[in-house]
Specification:
single chain; 122 residues; alpha/beta; five-stranded mixed sheet; 4 helices; 36% helix; globular
């Protein structure tokens, strides 16, 4: 298995494990369109991330539900998180439910592949 496939497989497995363990999942609901820089980038900036270990990512919440069959149901939103390659765990995670998405968020999510909805952010 190549490195990228292995990486996505690890994140997918970590997501599945995460949702099995979490009973109270934090959901941020905003009464406006989701803004990529205000709602996503700023959330990652407030975390103390080590670029050698942490990989920030986003995925469309609906696609995530389809992928792991028990993610929270939302009409419009994203799931964002940070994968720690050293511990092979997702350390930070948040779902944002919104009335819509700005163009930048749509552009970022359009980078997802059909068989893997996770978009790794650099």
């Amino acid at each position: 298995m190549n490195t990228i496939s292995s990486f996505f497989s690890s994140i997918g497995q970590a997501l599945a494990n995460l949702f099995r363990k979490i009973k109270n999942f934090f959901v941020k609901v905003i009464k406006r369109a989701l803004n990529f820089f205000r709602d996503v980038v700023n959330w990652f900036k407030q975390l103390d991330l080590n670029p050698e270990n942490h990989t920030p990512f986003v995925t469309d919440a609906k696609k995530l539900k389809e992928m792991i069959h028990n993610a929270p149901i939302v009409d419009c939103g994203i799931f964002e998180g940070v994968y720690n390659a050293q511990t092979e765990e997702i350390e930070h995670y948040q779902e944002i439910s919104a009335e819509g998405m700005d163009e930048k968020t749509k552009e970022i999510l359009s980078q997802a592949k059909e068989d893997n909805p996770i978009v790794v952010l650099n």
